[in-house]
Amino acid sequence: MDETACKNCRIIIKSGNRCPICGSADITNKISGYIIMLDYEKSEIAKKLNININSTFALNIKG
Ligand SMILES: [Zn+2]
Fold this sequence. Notes:
Bound molecules: zinc ion
Number of strands: 5
Order of helices and strands: EEEEHE
Mean pLDDT: 91
Low-confidence stretches: none
């Protein structure tokens, strides 16, 4: 698995080494599980994780 996620907002970063949302370069490839957010406005998980965009997110970040 060569995908990385932003440690700040957990979004999966498919290319580059910066988060497209918050601009952070604090990223990791130690991801366990994914959340594919299709309709964040109706999702309780999105509210819990403060997700406000439809994208793929890391469920857990290990390091
Ligand atoms: Zn971010």
